[in-house]
Write a structure and sequence with these properties.
The complex is a heterodimer of chains A (about 325) and B (about 290). Chain A is mainly alpha-helical and about 325 residues long. Chain A has a single domain, classed as MetI-like (MetI-like fold). The mean pLDDT of chain A is about 85. Chain B has 9 helices and 10 strands. Chain B has a 6-stranded mixed β-sheet, sandwiched between helices. A 4-stranded antiparallel β-sheet of chain B has the order 2-1-4-5. In chain B, a hairpin with a 2-residue loop joins strand 9 and strand 10. In chain B, helix 3 packs parallel to helix 5. Chain B starts with 11 loop residues before the first strand and ends with a helix. The chains are: A mainly alpha (about 325), B alpha/beta (about 290). At the A-B interface, helix 9, helix 10 and helix 14 of A face helix 3 of B.
Chain lengths: ~325, ~290
């Protein structure tokens, strides 16, 4: 029953966040210099007179008050009707679905990679505080944390794709091959370098926070008592340390989903990977308003659900939080 | 079970002689400074007895416990000898015997991992003491019964336990591996009268079962109630080592003025204000 109440409360909060983001995003687009009619016409703008433009605007409801337009859009949004993307010449929902499908593998691999590697490095570094291993891990993390993602991406591309020729230079599949004929090994081959680059982004933060918590645990009274029971350092690190350190690691892993998505925009751009990130850049540059708004909403949902999961897992790991909610 | 065994001449299980301890600290680039922790501490604990170490806060009682367990920080320098069961007790032997022959009952409930169920922590303690996996469950059941803990305690997290229960869980963890020497560091702090008596009774039971118990406490009354021998510590050194019955009357059987003053200061005795009675120790205090 209490679990139910918790979920209801958090889902309501999620709904409020989404509505608020929708209103702000709509307001920003309305205030921007983008003219949807111009964007729709594109090159054909010279062939169209002012009367026709006015007709299009009227047909699309631009003569109505802004609040009414917002209401119509929100209503459509609630029904799952996201509009038509003129640059892809397809329904927005289809564009997002296919682009997210391409990105999802990249995001998932990068997320798993950064979380697991970061956690592992943090646990080892914190357990052997002050050792050469710890120093090496810290040096690695500080270097990573101060390196821009796109620069790492370009460097990786230069070294692994151009110089060594291990990985393909671009795209999610070889050019000129029909999508359905590409096997999963080829896909993975194309995915490897972007995923690796993107996962490097999250490693440093998770590793450093995990290491900090590990250090606290290794100096705690219960770690000393575990030693008094005859426990080895490794025993303490895994039984007590990893248990405590997964709290900050979980929070960071889910809270960094937004950052991961932001990173994927840069990485997909550098690797010319046809995912959601690249679609975002195109939609922005070519004034595809329905697509841009829909991606904004989709990202909000993605990040908020991530945070919700983190909150839920936190309660599952720490019994004291479970009690506090009662 | 809590009645005292007649005092016999046991051979000492733990012998501490002339144990001194200091912590090095870097001051500047090349110089080191020292902080004295313990100074010529000597005592011996035999099987079948409760040996109490009494002293004020900062007297070095817990340092003594950690030195015996081998849990001192890396910057501690120890001199003097520790012998356990007739053999020298060095760092590698301490590491081998921790949890198996040497057990600690820690001072505070913070020694339990707040994120792990008590049952898991009991099982871990058994594993660390080298109990074979097949008999761990049986051991857990045994110690739970021994300390009057419900089987449901194994599902509980430490923060849900009462102070008395947590202390009994710690006692259960310390005795799950059948250690020969049990060092109880202030096991009765923060407990009400009934729970305190209960914990002291358990310690006496352990001694009656042939274990050696080192009871560290700041309260002479608790020490006298349950111990056979009492060592009084002050400012990092042992001031007096006496049998419990020597603390009687005016304290005339005690050899040092500090121990006598401590005895006389008890509310049930003369309730006298302790005077600065021992110039040597005063000097150590100031140093």
């Amino acid at each position: 029953m209490r679990v139910m109440a918790w979920w209801v409360q958090h889902l309501l909060r999620l709904a409020v966040v989404i509505v608020a983001v929708a209103i702000v995003a709509f307001g920003l687009i309305a205030a921007s210099p983008i003219d949807p009619v111009d964007a729709y016409l594109g090159d054909r703008i010279a062939q169209v007179g002012p009367e026709q433009r006015a007709l299009i605007a009227q047909r699309w409801g631009f003569d109505e008050p802004l609040a009414l337009q917002l209401g119509t859009w929100l209503g459509n949004l609630a029904q799952g009707e996201l509009g038509w993307s003129h640059i892809h010449d397809a329904p927005v929902s289809e564009v997002i679905a296919s682009r997210f499908h391409a990105s999802s593998m990249l995001l998932l691999l990068a997320w798993l990679g950064s979380t697991l590697l970061g956690f592992l490095l943090g646990v080892v570094g914190g357990a052997c505080e002050g050792s050469w291993l710890d120093r090496a891990i810290r040096l690695y993390c500080y270097t990573l944390a101060s390196t821009p993602t796109f620069w790492v991406a370009i460097l990786a591309l230069l070294v692994f794709s151009v110089r060594l020729g291990w990985t393909p230079v671009c795209c999610a599949s070889p050019p000129g091959v029909v999508q359905s004929e590409v096997d999963w090994l080829t896909r993975l081959h194309h995915l490897a370098l972007p995923a690796l680059t993107l996962s490097l982004l999250g490693v440093a933060q998770i590793a450093l926070h995990t290491r900090e918590r590990m250090r606290q645990v290794m100096r705690s009274e219960f770690a000393l008592y575990a030693r008094a029971q005859g426990a080895t350092r490794r025993d303490i690190a895994w039984r007590h340390g990893a248990r405590h350190a997964c709290l900050p690691a979980l929070t960071l892993a889910f809270a960094s989903l937004g950052e991961l998505f932001g990173g994927s925009i840069l990485v997909e751009q550098v690797f010319a990977y046809p995912g959601l990130g690249q679609a975002t850049v195109e939609a922005g540059l070519r004034s595809d308003v329905p697509l841009l708004l829909a991606i904004a909403m989709f990202t909000t949902l993605f990040v908020s659900v991530g945070n919700l999961i983190a909150d839920g897992l936190y309660r599952w790991v720490d019994p004291r939080l479970r009690e506090a909610a009662r | 079970m809590t009645q005292r065994l007649p005092r016999q001449e046991h051979t000492a299980l733990l012998e501490v002689s002339d144990l001194s301890l200091r912590f090095t600290r870097r001051s500047g680039w090349f110089r080191q400074s020292y902080i004295n922790g313990l100074c010529n501490v000597s005592l011996s604990v035999a099987r079948g007895e409760v040996h109490a170490v009494v002293g004020a806060s900062g007297a070095g009682k817990s340092l003594l416990a950690w030195a015996v367990m081998g849990l001192l920080p890396a910057n501690a320098r120890c001199t003097g000898t520790l012998r356990f069961d007739g053999q020298p007790l060095d760092a590698s032997r301490q590491a081998r015997l921790r949890g198996r022959s040497l057990a600690l009952v820690p001072q505070s409930v913070a020694a339990l991992d707040p994120l792990a169920r008590c049952g898991d922590q009991l099982r871990w303690a058994a594993q660390r003491a080298g109990i074979p996996t097949t008999s761990i469950q049986q051991r857990v059941a045994r110690v739970l019964g021994q300390y009057g803990l419900e089987p449901g305690v194994t599902r509980a997290y430490p923060h849900t336990l009462s102070g008395g229960m947590a202390r009994r869980v710690l006692l259960a963890m310390a005795s799950i591996g059948d250690a020969d020497l049990i060092i109880a560091d202030e096991p009765t702090v923060g407990l009400d009268h009934a729970n305190r008596e209960r914990v002291l009774g358990y310690l006496r039971d352990l001694a009656a079962a042939g274990k050696a118990v080192l009871l560290i406490t700041h309260d002479l009354r608790h020490a006298l109630k349950s111990a056979d021998h009492v060592t009084v510590m002050r400012s990092g050194t042992t001031v007096e080592c006496a049998k419990a019955h020597q603390f009687s009357g005016e304290g005339s059987q005690l050899t040092t003025a500090y121990a006598r003053a401590l005895w006389q200061a008890l509310p049930s005795n003369a309730f006298l204000q302790p005077r600065p009675v021992n110039p040597v120790n005063e000097a150590i205090d100031l140093a």
